[in-house]
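Teaching note: in complex prediction, the entire set of molecules is handled at once rather than each chain in isolation. The prompt given to students was simply: 'Predict the structure of this complex.' The entities are:
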Amino acid sequence: MSTSKVTLPDVGIGDLLPRLKDQGYDTERVSRRRAWIEEKTGATLKHIGSVSFDTEELRGNIENPIGAAQVPMGVAGPVLVHGRHARGMFYIPMATSEGALIRSYERGMVALTRSGGVQTAILADENQIVPTFFFPDVATAAGFSGWIPKNIDAIRTAAETTTRHGKLTDVKCYQTGRQVLVNFGYNTADAQGMNMLVKATDHACKWIQANFPISSYFVFSGMCSEKRPSGFLLTRGKGKRVTAGALLTHEVLKMYLHCTAQELFDIWHSTVIGHLHANAIGYNAQYANGLTAIFIATGQDVANVVNASCGVTNFELQPEGLYVSLTLPALTVATVGGGTGLPTQREALTMMGCHGAGKAKKFAEIVAAAVLGGEISMGAAITTGEFVAAHEHYGRNRPK
Amino acid sequence: MSTSKVTLPDVGIGDLLPRLKDQGYDTERVSRRRAWIEEKTGATLKHIGSVSFDTEELRGNIENPIGAAQVPMGVAGPVLVHGRHARGMFYIPMATSEGALIRSYERGMVALTRSGGVQTAILADENQIVPTFFFPDVATAAGFSGWIPKNIDAIRTAAETTTRHGKLTDVKCYQTGRQVLVNFGYNTADAQGMNMLVKATDHACKWIQANFPISSYFVFSGMCSEKRPSGFLLTRGKGKRVTAGALLTHEVLKMYLHCTAQELFDIWHSTVIGHLHANAIGYNAQYANGLTAIFIATGQDVANVVNASCGVTNFELQPEGLYVSLTLPALTVATVGGGTGLPTQREALTMMGCHGAGKAKKFAEIVAAAVLGGEISMGAAITTGEFVAAHEHYGRNRPK
Amino acid sequence: MSTSKVTLPDVGIGDLLPRLKDQGYDTERVSRRRAWIEEKTGATLKHIGSVSFDTEELRGNIENPIGAAQVPMGVAGPVLVHGRHARGMFYIPMATSEGALIRSYERGMVALTRSGGVQTAILADENQIVPTFFFPDVATAAGFSGWIPKNIDAIRTAAETTTRHGKLTDVKCYQTGRQVLVNFGYNTADAQGMNMLVKATDHACKWIQANFPISSYFVFSGMCSEKRPSGFLLTRGKGKRVTAGALLTHEVLKMYLHCTAQELFDIWHSTVIGHLHANAIGYNAQYANGLTAIFIATGQDVANVVNASCGVTNFELQPEGLYVSLTLPALTVATVGGGTGLPTQREALTMMGCHGAGKAKKFAEIVAAAVLGGEISMGAAITTGEFVAAHEHYGRNRPK
Amino acid sequence: MSTSKVTLPDVGIGDLLPRLKDQGYDTERVSRRRAWIEEKTGATLKHIGSVSFDTEELRGNIENPIGAAQVPMGVAGPVLVHGRHARGMFYIPMATSEGALIRSYERGMVALTRSGGVQTAILADENQIVPTFFFPDVATAAGFSGWIPKNIDAIRTAAETTTRHGKLTDVKCYQTGRQVLVNFGYNTADAQGMNMLVKATDHACKWIQANFPISSYFVFSGMCSEKRPSGFLLTRGKGKRVTAGALLTHEVLKMYLHCTAQELFDIWHSTVIGHLHANAIGYNAQYANGLTAIFIATGQDVANVVNASCGVTNFELQPEGLYVSLTLPALTVATVGGGTGLPTQREALTMMGCHGAGKAKKFAEIVAAAVLGGEISMGAAITTGEFVAAHEHYGRNRPK
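The expected output is the structure of the full assembly:
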């Protein structure tokens, strides 16, 4: 073990984590690192070390590995989807430790299915990133803002030389003072795509730098709202923009959700007012619960839940019942790359026929339909008062 | 196996998940449910079924269990914390599948430690929920808005009869038209506390209903911003409001982050402009990455990352280097309840001496310090251009 | 005339405006300044010079005076108000150049009146300002955050020595990193109060600086959202927080607004979705139109329309018709000070019995009721298609 | 006088305003209406009645006219502008009743001029409106979202038949559930253009309705953010998107603003933090003050200040001094139509050579430069403490 130690008289010694051979992904080295941590911290890490697969598979997904978190996984469904890419009945793997969550989603999905299923549509499919360029003054920056649109073809060529799957689909300038934020949009096929985007865009930026006199640039400006909440996400989108909708009949409402269309609408109406007063981004009942559980189960980049949770749910009364829908403009999901190839995650994607190339749009539609199940079930639980009871019943693990 | 089948001529058959005895948490029944899903979907769920502990432990955390997701866990650190509750050197468990993430946080934490460590402080500790009450008109609602403050004591008594740990700390009315949103604040000790809050508040609402003529109420209005992004979170807060700050010296900046104080400040400055243009909530480099990885590892309610990611990072130049800080107003973390008692999660908390009662504030301070490591490392990687290279090197699992 | 001239070889000569004796408020000097501008710019300023009162009255309201803008003033109403402070039938002076605006508000006010009038209530009355204090590190700042609440009395004493009318009602700390934003709330009686606030707060800050070791402070942090749009305004408020509501009966809806309750509700519902997608602050049909016209007519600080326009309008179906309401959390209006004493402005306030001390709450309630008239009339015009026709008919001055 | 009276036993009598011949714009009829109000309210409206021009000129700008508000007008400047459309030295008419405002702007403008002037650029010029279309379900709406882009030419033809000046420049669909918000962008030349837009878009909607089976539509959805604050304005823009920037030299900073570049930067930095915590839209020192004063003086639709005040000001330290800039993405200004042709307003526009056709872009650039003067002067006043003193000195009209 080759730990480097630095003596800091004032603050004590902080031992660096051991740097092991080949970065230490084989079982023995993971084990040694875990033992090192156990010694340092006094913790016993038996379960963390109980990985059911060859730890070499962790390479590329994590550094300084010591094992795995085991997050409870359950299943909700079925949910019937009538999408452009997803068609049929699906069972949804969800990994969570929040009691009552799966029961709630399951109820919603069944209600949607019994009403005839959920229509879905992918409205856009474009991940994006916004590098920023600096100029000595406003006029020079304005010149650049005019130059970019004329050089899209060359910029595209530069970007796409770095990737086989990413396609540059859009470039748009947002000048602010003497700085120009340039929004690059890409189709990233079935990958979440941010690494691909960053690399391609950095290459494009270098081409730009070589062809227009700029002071400097950064490949990130924060404007892309990757893993952060922003109003921009609602209109610009990020990854899949997907919508899902269904007509809940009066009969299904009564039988499965124990409320009337009017009651469910009233909860929507009053909570919209709550969202407006909180200056929330969009409106939802609980996107994050469903998205997080599915993201963990299927090896998505879970931090993307922050952007994916920006959207708008709508409930509309009509004679036949309640039309319920949601729109997720920033659903950054993948069926290849990232954690999607890890053992349990690949299995979970396979449950929905969504592992591998050509499946991301299908997966996005299934996710949207599943999350819609949570929206209606949550709303119903509040209006009927079952919310408190359900958490009493299912969530027994909390401190009394 | 007692599945109920409903034949829907138009939409095909959607088999309900099997309802098993005692809800099916023992190993054999989890196994049967998994087999049922394998048969329905054609997937093989071998790794999902490889749970290292008794599946009865899943009860209260999930329904319809089929096993567990194994999420890669690594360690970053050390990070030296000078807090009010956390004091010393910590190693941080992080569960993620995003290559390069841990290496980036590790670098940042080491830089903070080598600069003398991170000061932290809990500024507030109050989770909240906002029921909403309905009245026939604006004047009656205004009467209620005036009545509530005079009856705080009785409301508190009603709320606290339902909980041993929750303390009602604040009640504030936000009238909007003829609806009155009433913000309840609670100290929830070491639990995340939402279930506790909902139950206590519902009880308080029933007392209110019995003592003031109201049309109706809902225990949720959405205003509390649980698991959703909102501006309200920044000022109202949710759970722990925590801040962390450190002075990075010129020498540490050069040696560990490969940039100057000015360069790191410049990236802050330019990305603040990006955030403003995106109408983001607050400003951060990548809170969600660190928070999500720690939340998964330690059994937090991961969906809370959405609210926890609303905060503000600040970088300030000064003669000795760069003062870096962050403020997380809505860090809803727990060391008891929820998923914190699950096997791998308890182990991860124990690594930081943070499992069990009396540890939540300590944990919140460690989280804030750890996340600050990510803020500076991310900024540095962008300014030096290492960001692209690091993802090339560590994140090898994406499609080429 | 004592103009100072500076020769700038590169950029030409920019003559400074003439500095006249006693700052030049008497008629002759205003005239000379106007003539100077006419000579410089070639414009004829005959009408601007046609002020109907002694120009010495402009002192304190403007510098470098050349006369007055004449903004068309009309009247809308009547609107019947059942408030806590305003009770009775009012005619509303509105100054605007937007054709059809007054006709639209008039229609709405009459509909409200014919439905039985508008209930109003002042829910809070507190203008605020947020100075910010700087500290060397997070821990010291946290000490300050704890020190402030213990010294409220002394801070109040310091603040109130500077003002006869302002009362310090609230002090609350928002620490962010090593900076502490301190929100001061004041009751400013019948004045808009910002000048009063700034002076009192600056005095309090000086007392704080003398009693706690702080690095420095600024009396403004921008957080108060004076004249800027923010989510904070919705919950914190600014000046008068006022609500207004009325039940529009089916008969009145049909006769005056030419639509049904359902149709008017549908326009609310669909435009809420539009607001959510735009990430708007709150929701309204057109607060700014009514507020601006009344603010100009009555000598308010018109720039405050920006904060005053942040609010929430709600429409709710009920058997008897449509309950319509609005809540304006940041209505910074005055009946003394600022432009309220100018000749035409004083006359306009007098039309509503709202000039002078003790009238600001009454005025705020009238404004809220009047603006509610615009909300319903605008909504109705869209649903019936009359919006286009009305602007064709009344707004004839635009380019064909 | 033909007033109609309605007796309402319960609520008293609310007399309708007199409907006079030809809507009552001639002097005698305006006088009669004013007398009617005087009688009703007991107010004397002498100054409101002192209009210096033929009241027939009010037709098209207002209904129920009783005269005019006289708003104090002063002049600030000079400001040297190096724009694409505005070039030269300008004096800015400002109508306000806020003491010290003009002196503050004047100081800023002179500082900018002495530093060599302000560069400006129009980055976009497109007003927009967002009708919304309703469909029975998500799938049908998705079909519509795909149909629209294929029919742009026919939609443009339909829209442009109604206007000689408006050009349809962009159509973009934002589907949300089963509702499709369609963003129409127009070049409106020198008019503010909303009336033109509404009429043209309504015509286009009728064409769409005749060619695609839609349930119904509304010409407004609120998404366009006309006269309301939203994040969408920052990226979508509204009217002129304009930027202005200048390098303030150390010498000018010291002489005119009494502070150093570092001090002025520090106030920017700390107030950005305040804006972020308030969840403000963008960042500014006081756009609304300058915009409102210029809008009133020049006959703009003053309510548009709400959207026009959404923008971002940036201060950047550099060796030679401080680079200051602002970006106003939603500056809806006009030099024809609306109130621009009224007597005092036309005179004010003429002072800047901005009255009539072909002048709107020039005017927008001048406005941006002038408002930048306020940004730096406000910042300087806070950092030096002169803010309190200036309001003491110039704003003497407030209650003591």
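Point out the following to students. The first helix of chain A runs from residue 27 to 41. Chain A touches chain B through 163 residues (CB under 8 Å).
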